[in-house]
Amino acid sequence: MTEKSRESGQAARGLLARADNVGRIVENAALVITLSAMILLGSTQIILRNFFDSGFGWADEALRMMVLWVAMFGAVAASREHRHITIDVLARVLPDKAKGGVTLLVDALTAAITMILAWYSWVFVADSYAYQDRLLNDLPAWIFQSVLPIAFLLIAYHYVIACLRQVRKLFGSAAS
Amino acid sequence: MIFIILALLALLGTPLFVVIAASAMLGYNSSEIPLSAIPIEIFGISEMPILLAIPLFTFAGYVLSESQAPARLVRLTEALLGWLPGGLAIVSIAACAFFTAFTGASGVTIIALGALLYPALSQAGYDKNFNLGLVTAAGSLGLLFAPSLPLILYGVVAELPIDDLFIAGVLPGILMMVVLSAYSLWINRANRRPISQFSVAELLRAIKETAWEIPLPFVVLGGIYSGYFAVSEAAAVTAVYVVAVEVFIRHDIRISKLPQIMRESMVLVGGILLILGVSLASTNYMIDAQVPEKLVGFVNQFVTGQTSFLLMLFLFLLVLGAILDIFSALVLVVPLILPVAAEFGVDPIHLGIVFLSTMQLGYLTPPVGLNLFISSYRFDQSIVRVYLATFPFLVMLMLSVLLITFWPALSLVLLER
Fold first, then answer.
1. According to the model, what pLDDT value does residue B416 have?
2. Which run of H or E residues covers position B339?
3. Nearest residue of B to residue A86, measured between CA atoms
4. Residue B216: which of B102, B92, B114 has the closest Cα?
5. CB of A141 less than 8 A from some CB of B
6. In the predicted model, is pLDDT for residue B202 greater than 60?
7. Distance from the B346 Cα atom to the nearest Cα atom in chain A, whole angstroms
């Protein structure tokens, strides 16, 4: 490896690490804001209904949207840490040599499937935009639906990065 | 063929939501349904009001487990039950069941309570293997008590009233506790020395210490049954209450730690709800392809009546629980077996209790029993040792589950169904 390409490799890695940090902060912020809003809005509704016999007409629908949002953000956070629910009975008993290859295969498949999900979620949102679907007192539905393509794209991104790391781990020593 | 490949990929550690999404894509493709119907199904997560309870209860449970509430709970139960001969084992069982109901059987019980109970049990002179087995087995006890997460999820998937399920779980849940307690007493009949004298002063101290946590179950369950709030609202109240008590009144948790707890709990919620979302899509396809009808036809070849159906169901769920976690099993399998169970006259509420209690055994059976791994990791014991230590408890629980399965009245009598 030449001096120059090593430098550019390090620069790229530095950039990735920074993107990683920023991503984590944004994820945390999204999770904290959405969950706090759900807790506050949910409890305000109960107080308004039981003590003042009123309430926000839009609150129940808004809460349902926030469930979807917090779930998708949570799924992105789970992808960053590779903590999705798996069975992995065979993965536990595989010989160490095979494990690396299997991890690469599994991560690549996950990246591919979530990219397809992201693409069709995008189609779904675009259709909804074109038909001008409405939710929540006449707000455009695509605003709420767009969490799907964004989240799936981010999940795919995390697994692409995981693939690249795995490739470097498996073949890196041979290359240099 | 393609489904064998998918199953193999799942066993190799592919995230389950990916496997389910892939099978839905293949299914839609072969029936020429456009794939953009899949995100529409996933968006269905936002159309079920009851789901709100899941992130809120999970967060509240995580806050509780990070606080000193588990230690106070153990002290209170000890003051209440410690004077009984063999009392500490019963203390452990009661405290674990209560705590699991609130934390949703995600292994948190073993981490939060096991660490307190395991050394205490050793100190009280119980056999080491007994302690290991007891703490591991009790880690998922209480699954049938409100407001446990799997109970709520079953209600969501089966479209049943959650409050009915909360009532139905009470007696079967108590049965499991009684069986484990009786077994513990019998095993330790030589070591009957109570851990403490009953003392009113200690009980009052323990009550005073737990004064803020004691109202919690009453607020939650009382609120739901008196009609003051719905299940999802009870979850919001619980979340607010728990944060107020543990952060602002008790100062157990610094406010700067809350974002991390929120993240941790939402990683679990995201994992569960994403699987629910993609399985809405795959279930839709399977119903389209008349899989439940075919399943009824298939089962009819082997099964003649309700009793033989329940026996087959029990065996099937035992195997299922050994390979699949409870949440995935719920969203994937329940929609398919509900119509079959209806065919044999099994009440859907009873089916739910049977399903959950049998899946609870899955926490303790290899190869994927979650509790076995958490205990092995937490107490630094080999997985084989944990398994052997847990086995007698597994047998006891299995006997209780058989009783629950073949005695529907136990689940249904309080509902007058």
1. 79
2. helix B326-343
3. B15
4. B102
5. no
6. yes
7. 30
User: If you search the block for the tokens 């399985």, which residue do you land on?
Assistant: B279
Tens digits of residue pLDDT in A129-164? 888 777 777 788 888 899 999 999 999 999 999 999
Is B271's CB within 8 Å of A43's CB?
A: no
How many other CB atoms sit within 10 Å of the CB of residue B336? Answer: 16
Q: How far is CA B67 from CA B63, B75, B136, in A?
A: 6, 14, 21
Q: How many CB atoms lie within 10 A of CB A107?
A: 24
Least CB-CB distance to B38: which of A68, A110, A120? A120
DSSP B32: T
pLDDT at A4 over 70: no
A39/B239 CB distance under 8 A? yes
Q: For residue B106, what pLDDT band results from cuts at 50, 70 and 90?
A: low
* Nearest chain B CA: its distance from A44 CA (Å): 9
Take residue A133 and report the two structure tokens written for it: 């679907």
A46 contacts B270? CB cut-off 8 A? no
Q: How far is CA A97 from CA A168, A175, B169, in A?
A: 15, 18, 47
Q: Which of B51, B235, B266 sits opposite A77 (nearest CB)?
A: B266
This prediction's pTM = 0.88
CA distance B394 to B155: 26
Alpha carbons B239 and B225: distance in angstroms, whole number: 18
SS3 B188: coil
Q: Does A123 touch chain B (CB under 8 A)?
A: yes
The pLDDT value recorded for residue B401 is 96
Name the CA radius of gyration of chain B, rounded. Answer: 22
Angle at B322 between CA A158 and CA B276, to 5 degrees: 45
CA dihedral sign of residues B18, B24, B27, B28 = negative
Nearest CA in chain B to A37: B236
A11 three-state secondary structure: helix
Query: What count of CB pairs under 8 Å joins A to B?
Result: 202
| Helical (H) or strand (E) element with A139 | strand A139-140
Nearest to A71 among B16, B229, B270 (CB): B270
